[in-house]
Amino acid sequence: MKTRQSSILGIIYPSKILQDVDKNVRDSGSAALSDNPSDKAGSGILRLLVERGYLDEQIILDGSLFHDCKRELEFSKNDPEIIFAKNNWHKIEAINGKYQFKDIVLNK
7 — phi, psi (to 5°)? Predict the structure, then answer.
């Protein structure tokens, strides 16, 4: 199994984020996958971008992702990584009580 990227916030916090995302998908069903996703979808997308190495977690934590329109100017909605994350943010599994993305979405 592929070694997971560790988080600045440690191992437990990313698992908690993914647990919340997974619960939202289970509770909302196909509505969670709609074109108007919830904040849980957004956190799942950001987490997937971090774990795939496309986005530095630090720019989320320090808020710089949201300064000077960086999120719109540097991260195009047509970027293949963004499209991939939007299509796969919900592919989560629990192993021994730890929530993580399925290997298939982490392999580039």
Answer: -100, 155
